[in-house]
Specification:
By secondary structure, this protein is α+β, with helices and mostly antiparallel strands. It has a domain of 85 residues. Strand 9 and strand 10 form a beta hairpin.
């Protein structure tokens, strides 16, 4: 069994996730492919994750907001969708069918059961009623071509039906079903989230039929084959990793992970006494990259790529993660987390190193902070999930 050290894992991380400066000629699609999918619960994460992976050493510099928007809304080579762990991601359009079959189809079934129960309890109707509202909404969107939820509710008034949530709780209240219906249609691969209303940090979407992004609609793939393909892509980008890492990242059952791994046939490697997995043809040593630093945003896919994180996170979890396990903005050096960063109210990018990195790396971190500040300009980005160090630095 081949042994892969922590140092080699960090070298793989830097190279494969395009954080070591070798991605300076890459674009938004290549940045997403490098990590399978870009975490998109916080819209700003998508843009800042692309910036980190398109480098600053090349003559063109890192990708701009316009570059990412071009890929998302004009070229439509990127697509926003629910996938692993019922989480929002931005993925290459070519990858979307794999995620749809391996993850999103199950999300749709689970959420439909939940919403049906809530609608029945509210006395609105049953599953057939909900399905009828979905079909009517899809027809209205097809006529409009693109629309907001409010515009669709004007065409299909049942979208304004309200359900009381968390009755008796301080955070309870009435909620209309517009978001539920749109989520179900999107999870079924019938509609997609388009350009937001407002800036690139907005969470209010316009919607369009899936055919607008995928001519002919979302292709249908067999679930088992799609799961195996997703595992293969994760191993190529994140391997070596453990079965536990893979279970956490996909959100699948142990049985589903085992079945997918059987199809892929990975090789086992030793990770300091723990069994890890890599693709069978991916056992060659990784060349050490040149020294590098990077500022990654909250919820970046690299920081969230494994469930066991000590080999790159060290002792910094309490400062950089919230209680729910969401990571904040992180400072990286040579494949490990060495600090955190934030924006102050005036837009200044500030950071704190949590360990001694040496004078050369400290200087590189300072220079990188200035580049991130210049890229953000007048835009103020506050992470959706705020973590202890980010809160402190962002005052």
């Amino acid at each position: 069994m081949r042994s892969i050290s922590v140092e080699e894992r960090r070298a793989r991380l830097g190279r494969r996730h395009r954080l070591d400066g070798t991605g300076s000629s890459a674009g938004p699609v290549e940045a997403a492919e490098a990590v399978v999918a870009l975490h998109a619960t916080d819209p700003a994460t998508v843009f800042l994750s692309v910036v980190a992976r398109t480098g600053s050493a090349g003559p063109a510099g890192p990708a701009s907001v316009e570059d990412v928007e071009q890929a998302l809304y004009a070229d439509r080579t990127l697509l926003r969708m629910l996938a692993m762990r019922r989480t929002m991601f931005v993925v290459p359009t070519a990858t979307a069918p794999v995620l749809q079959a391996s993850c999103t189809r199950a999300v749709a079934a689970q959420q439909r059961r939940r919403y049906t129960q809530l609608i029945e309890a509210a006395g609105l109707g049953d599953g057939a009623w909900l399905k009828d509202v979905e079909e009517s909404t899809a027809r209205a969107l097809a006529v409009r071509g693109e629309a907001t939820g409010a515009e669709l509710a004007a065409d299909e008034p049942r979208l304004r039906s309200r359900v009381r949530m968390a009755e008796g709780k301080s955070y309870g209240g009435d909620q209309n079903i517009t978001t539920w219906v749109l989520l179900l249609l999107a999870a079924d691969g019938r509609i997609v989230r388009g350009r937001p209303r407002g800036s690139w940090t907005s969470t209010q979407w316009r919607w369009a039929p899936a055919e607008s992004w995928l001519p002919g609609g979302m292709p249908e793939l067999a679930v088992e084959a799609a799961r195996a393909e997703l595992v293969r892509r994760w191993l190529a980008a994140f391997g070596p990793g453990t079965v536990a890492d893979l279970r956490w990242w996909t959100g699948w059952t142990a049985r589903d992970v085992k079945a997918a791994l059987t199809r892929v046939g990975p090789a086992e490697v030793d990770l300091d006494g723990q069994t890890g997995l890599v693709l069978a043809d991916d056992l060659e040593p990784t060349q050490d990259p040149d020294p590098w630093v990077s500022f990654l945003p909250g919820l970046d896919p690299t920081a969230m790529g494994w469930s066991e994180r000590s080999w790159y996170l060290g002792a910094h979890r309490s400062a950089l993660f919230d209680r729910s396990g969401n990571v904040g903005p992180t400072v990286w050096a040579d494949g490990r987390v060495v600090g955190g960063w934030a924006q102050r109210p005036d837009g200044e990018v500030t950071y704190r190193l949590l360990e001694d990195v040496g004078s050369d790396t400290a200087r590189a971190v300072e220079e990188h902070a200035a580049r991130v500040h210049a890229w953000l300009g007048s835009t103020r980005v506050v992470p959706r999930f705020r973590t202890p160090l980010e809160k402190e630095l962002g005052r």
